[in-house]
Each structure stands twice: as C-alpha cells, then as structure tokens.
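Hi V.,

You were right to ask for the full record rather than a summary. Here it is.
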Amino acid sequence: MANFKDRIIRAAKLDIRLYEEVEADKGAMGQAMGLVVLSAVAAGIGSIGKAGATGIVIGTITALISWYIWAYITYFIGTRIFPEPQTKADHGELLRTIGFSSAPGLLRVLGIIPFLYGIIFFLTGIWMLIAMVIAVRQALDYSSTPRAIGVCIIGWIIQGIVFWLFFSIVAK
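Predicted structure:
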C-alpha cells in the first residue's frame, strides 16, 4: 500500500495517475475513508466559530454518509445511464477515487481563522469539485470531461434531494 501522505498530496495536486492508482488498489479503501473523515473533521474544526464543536461530530457523520451515497449515485448514473463504450467500474472504485477527491478539504481547518472562513471554504469547495470530476472521469474510464461534469452535477442534485427529504422527515 502506497504512502498515505504522498497520496493525499498527489490527490490535492489533481494528479490523474493517483486517481487511476487508487481506482485499481482495492487496499486503498481504508485510506479513502480515512481521508473523508480527516477532511470532515478539518471542516468541523474550521467551522467551530460558525457551528460550534458539535459541528465536528455531525459533519464527520454527514460526510461519511454523503461520500457513500454520492459514490453509489455516481456509480449508477455513470455506468447505467451515461456510460461510454469503455466504461467499466464498480462501487468500490468510485468510493476510493471520490474519497481521495476530498484531499483539498483538509485545508478547511484554516477556516478557524475568522476572516479566512468564507474564502477557505469557497476555494476548497471548488478545488474538491474539480478533484471529484477528475476522480469520476478516471473511475468511469471516460474520455469526456464534460460527461464527468454532468454525472457529478446530476449526482449532486440527486444527493441534495435525498438529504433534503431525509432531514425533512427527521425534523418533524
């Protein structure tokens, strides 16, 4: 298994070879999940000034659930609705690559600095979205970046609806 720190840096640098590597490495699931947790904790710490300390726990749990759901939705959309002829993937490949796309989220810990919160969360959000598109493109063996963007947007919308419905039901 490759060095975790090296993989995090390569993922944040948007290294396409890294996303291919973790797609193929079934042993990288623990690293991917660990990175999702670390990114969520970083966001929780970075938003303590806005959400308080409970944001760390809620944020971590939400990030893990979100990662799993988004990977499954992306897998379904990418392999069943919008596949390219060479598309061949399984849910684990999406979990691993999408997990590593959360690497830029580690910088959200800097949001704890009051005047940096908004800009840090905005920039890392864009960075993570770009990483997500790369992760999806590589995991689904797409030759088209616009197709990967479309799959990510559709998956994001569907996930948003799922979470909205869930929280609407739970909040009652």
